[in-house]
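Worked example 2:
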Amino acid sequence: EGSPNVVKEAMAVNLPIVTSPVGDCAERLREVSPSHIVPRTADAIADAAAAVLAAARRSNGREVLARTLSVETVAQRVLAVYDEARARRKGRR
């Protein structure tokens, strides 16, 4: 999965997240705390899960999600892609 829905769902309800480095998790979780992106080993996952449980607090995932994946933000990013494609096309003429 390029952008795991389970990560965004956990962010939406402010759950701490422990994941391996797949898709866009590193980008998505850059500002989320607590969250851990760890190697795909049992020890790394267990250690990160223990740290999250010891912290005993919710994350700021919803706030980050609202800022980075709001309708307005996504629309601006899509428009920027089209603007760049149009500018490149004009440059070829």
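The first strand starts at residue 17 and ends at 19. Residues 71-92 form the longest helix (22 residues).
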